[in-house]
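Figure 3 (text version): structure tokens given as input.
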């Protein structure tokens, strides 16, 4: 997906709270010209050294 530079966000301190508040994503695939959308839950887990992991 094309993402213009001015919309790009890579700071984890901004991204993680959004993912934790809205922990659902969608993956869209196309097979033989037919689009299919599936919901995927996002899980975060606190790990060693105060790192947060997205599972």
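Below: residues designed for each position.
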């Amino acid at each position: 997906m094309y993402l213009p530079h001015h919309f790009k966000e890579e700071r984890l301190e901004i991204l993680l709270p959004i993912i934790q508040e809205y922990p659902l994503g969608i993956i869209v695939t196309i097979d033989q010209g037919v689009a299919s959308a599936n919901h995927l839950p996002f899980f975060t887990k606190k790990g060693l050294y105060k790192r947060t992991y997205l599972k």
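The mean pLDDT is 88.
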